[in-house]
Each structure stands twice: as C-alpha cells, then as structure tokens.
Design goal:
This protein is an all-alpha fold and 22 residues long.
Length: 22
C-alpha cells in the first residue's frame, strides 16, 4: 500500500549517503 512511502524514505536516506561517497 505505502510502497511509494518506502521509496521516498529510501531516497531520503540514500541521497545523503551518495553525497558522502562522492
């Protein structure tokens, strides 16, 4: 049901991580 919310949550978590890697 809230798969879009899970995707949004993953994006908010992964974006800073990718910024740290780069």
């Amino acid at each position: 049901m809230a798969f879009w919310f899970v995707g949004l949550l993953l994006s908010s978590v992964l974006n800073p991580l990718k910024a740290n890697v780069e």
